[in-house]
């Protein structure tokens, strides 16, 4: 097998893209669809094994309690029960999970099952395995666990206050991480300002994308080889293996991750390594395959939530013309009971420090606390969504306070297209984009010119109409080096993804990817790229469905997350295909008696002599010669394998951990949304009556697929802005544990959605494309802004939360001054 | 969930007090009691089958008397565990003599966790309120019986339902 | 006179094929289809009857198979997503879902297709509002429903391709 | 998601059903199962025997009589929506039924089930209350009728005693001056509060939902001021949950009452 690893050197230059106009940029129908529309997809719960046991987790009913007694005797006595797994066994057989956080918080112990103590409602305490799903549940009900309840910590803002109960005995406080971020010269900016706008408190709420397929796995253990095969819907096997290997005290090759179809992920399926370890232990203990399917209520109470965040004592220096010089704030992020992927969220936001704005002076005191709530994990727009919502709230509150037009103040502060590539105050490089143009397009979509007329019409119907704008930067292709800013001891940096492309004995082109798609159409877009490079049809290209870490297409960061497939995944596909093309041309030249590969070309599945197209060698013959008839090849061509593996490595460098400075990610797709709401002032009930979303993710490999991502991400943020929220009571009980009380938008809830796109090619990527898919967050800002605008005529309340269900809007209407008292302006 | 209320009985304080201190009579007051064991004068244990319209909720409840000031004040903790639910109830009452009868000021703090919680507060709150009303009505009956069956409670005389009689606040 | 039973031999016709199985009274229809008959196209997305991923047609009527017991289906004729294209020839709805990119992860798709089929069986020319109402009981977390609504409208107009 | 062990019987006659319900402690009727199944999934309630009413055709009849509209308890919500008798006699029943949950749930869910489960957010308990329906309940000792005012006892609790069965709902013929209003979560989602109203002889009979364990009945003059006054004076005990505080529900109750009456009057 021939292999190449390429790392472009700095400074980054525009790469030649050799792909001729062909299938790239075309709406090629999806390869995935045929099986999925027939119900022939293979999702994790569809996997069955002989004698498979079904696992049910006994979960904590308490948010915070000591476990005083566990008795499983009645459960194991039940006929059909194969066995149980307890925390004490886990503690004896595994090491606690590796912690990203530096000491002292990094000393906390996180195991696959609760050991001695439970820290959130729904935390797995005992695993029970039985012959059927129902029996496992019956047995779980027979497990007796005694608890000694402890004070529940649920208030993010005060979780680290003195005297508050401590979640983790090994860590000295509930503060997981704290850091000061100081960019530009904030004090000078403050001195220079004509006005300073102050905001006491903003709150970004808990929710998650709640993929319709919950987490799950079928785990098999091979006693002969000591190797586990994990059929799961984990969306980041690279990370899971890094976490699980040390915990299980085995080498990584003992953990084979397999998945075909995954029913949505959105980041929520990254941190399932915890349950997977419990399943590995059970499979080994019981000597049989085990199936675990998380139920919806379990997903809501114990799967990863999006990070909750409060923004305190916000200070914004502004010139009288509306030019904003930066901001200062204290931010407290709530990661829930455990740090499964955290505290990475404490740095990820910094990829978009100034948002889409030319804010040069920033001072942030960022800390993260743990609370007795479900652990957080990446959720579509991870950590940037919270911060970008903050930047958009800031600009609309400043506009409101200074009586400036929301459109004008944005255009005055947007980073300009002619400034691209733009280096932010903390050293991130925005590759390309034209935010002002996207805004104009978005306003066109909602016919902004007619707003005042529509406002009057709404008033005549007793309704308050409001318009709002939101933005997101969908930063993609992480530089994992940013992890060293939260913990300098970490040995993570850069990023990578793998693809192999081979020409088989019958001339079949087969592609394997390292990614774990959950609807992102990787089979289709990969085939488009390969087809263009090899001058064939996408139908001629077989892209293996799903992921298998035993294919040789797996690297440390393999997975599907952080908006990067169009860059890393397709970058790898392009690299491997170019290697294969070169080998095919060599074989062709040799067989067709050409002097060099310059004299031959590809077309229609043949290598042809340019001077005589009649002289053509079919791919099938190439494949046959190399794989089954290679004695005919001259010796110098014997190293050709027609099986090419390429690792795409983005041009990342290590950041400066002292200054918390450096380029943290490669590409920046952006979205500008505009939204129109109508509020019933009598009830606080509102409708989104018009909605426009403009997306710019550079060159679009398949526009229809990109638009689908935009629509879906937007729907999620509209859901989050209106009704989706994880609410806990003071005892740490989750009050929205299912789709009854956690209302996700259905077809009637969705507003008329209009979309359009701009294509600002990325100068930094193989195809000019940018990763995308996480850009929906703009909806949270647009809805908040539209509500604040609508309520101008009703006491001018300030919207300070990202969660705005009807009752909150009614509260704003009842007591506008309460929210207004949170903001003030200092004249200079 | 916190509940509180005032109730009046046309019976002497001792009568009411005795009922509230007698495990056997308490068993008669509580809904769906299947078995009731007295472990000692401060600890009782009951297996109940609370009838909900859609099927009954089985629970085993451990009672512990926390405080007592005969004949007027008592505080009780009840911890219940069932398949779908986990209950923790702390309740107290104060009896005072009021124009020939007895006035009872009571408070209860009920916490419910477990899968039953997934049914939603809109359902749980009314169900808890309802069970409380059943207990209080049963208490009326016990008092009436102790008074020789003749005299019944003021509330009943006026033909008002306990729901109307009670004034209580349910808050999160 | 009928007496209560804990399990029962039931006979159902699924996608034209007759099946007989002994099932526990408590077994939900969706688990009967998935686990006993290995028809895994019908999915489970929630535990409260909200998501509609388990939608199938029982005697031509769209129902959520997580809120019906398998024993209740005794003697009935059931259609699941696997029955839409028996000979591999895609149903117009399946074709339209592909053409209009009405699915991403594909997990809600089987239930969505069955709800759409139920709609078109009873209302061949639905308005957009009628389409949205017809799939109100089917949650999709990927698409925002935009392309799903278009696909169903197109299929109704025979414009699957 | 997975039910506890349970016994199942599928009677072929109402008498047989009543016998089964009487013969087994902890037996519960299984109508559409769109609420009961979910409560059983949470194992929050565990009936010992399910008596399946789905094969009882006699409970599926819809008929018009001199004293109004008689609806079998097993008439599905979808049938209510489609029924010409309902459309002629009391269209409000169809209009409201069409808002309940979704197509699949309406295909299975029944009027009897929606009424007997009496989840505070249910649509039909307030409607039948406002319409002054009469419930026919059958037990071992035969049939009895219960006026709707005495029917609802609490969440999941009605006058239908263990061993009894709600067989039909009789809705009096009306003037057609009926209305319904609600504040749902999203479009036609779960109700935060709702209200049904029926105007006859210059009096509005209003039933408020989700402001107490059972529908709250008010009778008042149909003028807005009077309606608001009546709601303010009513003995409401609204639950507080993530969708609405008790205070917000009180406020909304007044508004939906007014809107329901206005719709009835229009």
CATH architecture descriptor text of chain B: 2-Layer Sandwich
Gyration radius of chain C, rounded: 16 Å
Average pLDDT, all residues of chain C: 96
H-E string of chain B: EHHEEEEEEHHH
Tell me about the largest β-sheet of chain C: 5 strands, mixed
**What is the string of helix and strand elements of chain C?**
EEHEEEHHHH
Report the average pLDDT across residues of chain B: 80
CATH superfamily of chain B: START domain
State the end-to-end CA separation of chain B: 5 Å
Question: How are the strands of the biggest sheet of chain B laid out side by side?
Answer: 1-7-6-5-4-3-2
Largest sheet of chain B: 7 strands, antiparallel
- The coarse silhouette of chain B is globular
So what's the CATH class of chain B?
A: Alpha Beta
**Helical fraction of chain C:** 25-40%
Structural class of chain C: alpha+beta
Total of DSSP H or I helical runs spanning 4+ residues of chain C: 5
Provide the β-strand percentage band of chain B: 35-45%
For the record, what CATH class of the largest domain in chain C applies? Answer: Alpha Beta
| Topology-level CATH name of chain B | Alpha-D-Glucose-1,6-Bisphosphate, Chain A, domain 4
Integer count of domains of chain C: 2
Short description:
Chain A has 21 helices and 31 strands.
């Amino acid at each position: 097998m021939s292999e190449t690893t390429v790392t472009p050197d700095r400074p980054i230059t525009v790469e030649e893209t050799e792909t001729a106009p062909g299938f790239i940029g075309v709406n090629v129908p999806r390869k995935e669809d045929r099986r999925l529309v027939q119900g022939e997809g293979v999702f994790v719960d569809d996997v069955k094994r002989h004698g498979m046991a079904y696992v049910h987790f006994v979960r904590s009913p308490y948010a915070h309690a000591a476990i005083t007694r566990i008795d499983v005797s009645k459960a194991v006595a039940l006929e059909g029960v194969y066995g149980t797994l307890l925390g004490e066994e886990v503690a004896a057989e595994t090491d606690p999970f590796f912690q990203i956080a530096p000491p002292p918080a990094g000393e906390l112990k996180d195991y696959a099952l609760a050991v001695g103590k439970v820290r959130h409602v729904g935390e797995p305490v005992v695993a029970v395995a039985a012959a059927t799903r129902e029996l496992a549940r019956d047995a779980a009900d027979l497990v007796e666990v005694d608890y000694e309840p402890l004070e529940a910590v649920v208030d993010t803002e005060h979780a680290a206050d003195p005297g508050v109960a401590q979640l983790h005995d090994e860590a000295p406080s509930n503060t997981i991480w704290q850091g000061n971020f100081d960019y530009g010269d904030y004090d000078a900016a403050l001195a220079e300002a004509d006005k300073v706008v102050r905001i006491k408190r903003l709150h970004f709420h808990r929710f998650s994308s709640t993929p319709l397929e919950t987490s799950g796995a079928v785990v098999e253990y091979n006693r002969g080889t000591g190797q586990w095969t994990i059929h799961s819907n984990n969306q980041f096997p690279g990370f899971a293996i890094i976490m699980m290997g040390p915990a299980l005290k085995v080498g990584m090759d003992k953990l084979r991750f397999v998945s075909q179809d995954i029913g949505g992920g959105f980041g929520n399926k990254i941190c399932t390594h915890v349950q997977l370890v419990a399943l590995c232990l059970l499979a080994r203990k019981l000597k049989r395959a085990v199936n675990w399917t998380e139920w919806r209520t379990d997903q809501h109470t114990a799967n990863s939530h999006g990070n909750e965040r409060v923004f305190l004592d916000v200070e914004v220096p502004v010139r009288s013309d509306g030019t904003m010089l930066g901001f200062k704030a204290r931010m407290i992020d709530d990661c829930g009971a455990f740090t499964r992927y955290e505290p990475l969220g404490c740095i990820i936001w910094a990829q978009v420090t100034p948002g889409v704005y030319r804010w040069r002076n920033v001072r942030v005191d960022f800390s993260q606390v743990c609370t007795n709530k479900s652990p957080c994990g990446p959720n579509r727009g991870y950590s940037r969504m919270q911060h970008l919502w903050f930047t958009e709230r800031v600009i609309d509150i400043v506009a409101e306070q200074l009586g400036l037009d929301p459109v004008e103040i944005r255009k005055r502060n947007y980073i300009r297209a002619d400034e691209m590539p733009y280096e932010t105050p903390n050293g991130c490089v925005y590759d390309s984009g034209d935010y002002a143009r996207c805004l104009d397009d978005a306003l066109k979509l909602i016919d902004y010119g007619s707003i005042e007329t529509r406002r009057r019409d709404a008033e005549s119907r007793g309704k308050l109409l409001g318009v709002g704008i939101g933005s997101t930067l969908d930063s993609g292709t992480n530089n994992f080096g940013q992890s060293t800013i939260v913990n300098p001891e970490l040995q993570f940096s850069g990023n990578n993804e793998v693809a192999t492309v081979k020409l088989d004995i019958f001339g079949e082109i087969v592609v394997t990817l390292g990614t774990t798609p959950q609807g992102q159409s990787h089979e289709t877009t990969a085939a488009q790229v390969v087809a263009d490079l090899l001058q064939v049809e996408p139908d001629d290209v077989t892209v293996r469905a799903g992921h298998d870490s035993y294919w040789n297409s797996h690297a440390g960061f393999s997975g599907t997350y952080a908006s990067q497939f169009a860059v890393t995944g397709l970058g790898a596909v392009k690299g491997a295909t170019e290697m294969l093309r070169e080998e095919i041309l060599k074989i062709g030249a040799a067989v067709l008696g050409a002097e060099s590969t310059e004299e031959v070309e590809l077309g229609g599945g043949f290598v042809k002599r340019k001077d005589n197209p009649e002289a053509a060698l079919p791919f099938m013959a190439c494949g046959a010669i190399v794989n089954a008839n290679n004695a005919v090849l001259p010796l110098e061509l014997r190293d050709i394998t027609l099986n090419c593996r390429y690792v795409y490595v983005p041009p990342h460098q290590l950041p400066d951990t002292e200054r918390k400075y450096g380029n943290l990610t490669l590409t920046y797709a952006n979205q500008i949304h505009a939204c129109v709401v109508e509020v019933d002032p009598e009830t606080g009930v509102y409708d989104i009556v018009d909605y426009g979303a403009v997306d710019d993710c550079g060159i679009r490999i398949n526009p229809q697929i990109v638009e689908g991502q935009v629509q879906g991400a937007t729907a999620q943020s509209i859901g989050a802005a209106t009704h989706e929220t994880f609410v806990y009571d003071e005892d740490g009980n989750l009050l929205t544990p299912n789709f009854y009380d956690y209302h996700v938008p259905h077809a009637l809830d969705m507003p008329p959605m209009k979309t359009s796109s701009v294509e600002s090619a990325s100068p930094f990527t193989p195809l000019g494309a940018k990763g995308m898919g996480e850009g929906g967050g703009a909806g949270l800002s647009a809805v908040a802004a539209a509500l604040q605008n609508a309520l101008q005529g009703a006491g001018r309340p300030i919207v300070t939360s990202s969660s705005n269900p009807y009752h909150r809007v009614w509260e704003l209407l009842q007591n506008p001054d309460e929210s207004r008292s949170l903001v003030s302006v200092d004249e200079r | 969930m916190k509940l509180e209320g005032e109730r009046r009985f046309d019976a002497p304080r001792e009568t009411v007090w005795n009922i509230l201190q007698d495990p056997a009579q308490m068993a008669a007051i509580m809904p769906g009691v299947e078995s009731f064991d007295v472990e000692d004068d401060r600890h009782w244990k009951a297996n109940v089958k609370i009838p909900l319209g859609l099927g009954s909720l089985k629970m085993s409840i451990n009672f512990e008397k926390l405080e007592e000031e005969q004949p007027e004040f008592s505080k009780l903790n009840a911890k219940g565990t069932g398949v779908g639910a986990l209950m923790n109830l702390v309740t107290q009452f104060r009896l005072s003599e009021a124009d020939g009868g007895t006035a009872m000021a009571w408070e209860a703090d009920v916490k419910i966790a477990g899968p039953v919680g997934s049914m939603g507060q809109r359902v749980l709150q009314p169900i808890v309120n309802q069970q409380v009303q059943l207990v209080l009505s049963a208490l009326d009956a016990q008092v009436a019986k102790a008074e020789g069956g003749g005299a019944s409670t003021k509330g009943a005389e006026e033909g008002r339902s306990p729901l109307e009689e009670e004034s209580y606040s349910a808050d999160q | 006179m009928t007496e209560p039973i804990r399990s029962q031999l039931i006979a159902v016709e699924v996608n034209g094929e007759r099946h007989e199985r002994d099932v526990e009274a408590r077994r939900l229809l969706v688990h009967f289809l998935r686990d006993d008959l290995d028809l895994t196209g019908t999915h489970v997305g929630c535990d409260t009857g909200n998501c509609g991923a388990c939608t199938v047609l029982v005697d031509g009527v769209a129902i959520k198979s997580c809120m019906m017991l398998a024993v209740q289906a005794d003697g009935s004729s059931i259609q699941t997503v696997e029955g839409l294209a028996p000979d591999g020839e895609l149903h117009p709805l399946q074709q339209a879902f592909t053409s209009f990119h009405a699915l991403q992860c594909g997990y809600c798709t089987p239930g969505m297709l069955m709800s759409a089929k139920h709609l078109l069986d009873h209302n061949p020319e639905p308005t957009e509002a009628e389409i949205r109402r017809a799939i109100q009981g089917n949650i999709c977390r990927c698409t925002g429903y935009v392309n799903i609504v278009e696909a169903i409208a197109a299929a109704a107009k025979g414009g699957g391709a | 998601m997975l039910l506890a062990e349970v016994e199942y019987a599928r009677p072929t006659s109402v008498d047989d059903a009543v016998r089964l319900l009487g013969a087994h402690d902890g037996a519960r009727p299984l109508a559409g199962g769109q609420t009961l199944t979910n409560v059983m999934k949470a194992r929050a309630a565990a009936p010992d025997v399910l008596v399946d009413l789905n094969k009882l055709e006699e409970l599926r009849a819809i008929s018009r009589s001199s004293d109004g509209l008689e609806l079998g308890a097993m008439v599905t919500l979808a049938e209510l929506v489609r029924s010409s008798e309902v459309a002629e006699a009391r269209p409000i029943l169809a209009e409201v039924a069409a808002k309940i949950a979704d197509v699949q749930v309406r295909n299975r869910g029944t009027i009897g089930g929606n009424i007997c489960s009496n989840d505070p957010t249910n649509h039909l308990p307030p409607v039948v209350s406002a319409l002054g329906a009469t419930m026919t309940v059958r037990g071992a000792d035969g049939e009895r009728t219960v006026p709707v005012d005495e029917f609802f006892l609490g969440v999941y609790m009605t006058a239908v005693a263990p061993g009894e069965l709600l067989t039909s709902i009789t809705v009096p013929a009306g003037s057609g001056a009926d209305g319904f209003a609600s504040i749902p979560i999203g479009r036609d989602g779960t109700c935060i509060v709702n209200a049904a109203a029926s105007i006859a002889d210059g009096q509005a009979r209003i039933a408020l939902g989700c402001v107490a364990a059972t529908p709250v009945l008010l009778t008042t003059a149909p003028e807005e001021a009077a309606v608001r006054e009546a709601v303010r004076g009513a003995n409401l005990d609204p639950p507080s949950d993530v969708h609405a505080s008790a205070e917000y529900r009180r406020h909304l109750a007044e508004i939906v009452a007014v809107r329901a009456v206005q719709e009835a009057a229009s």
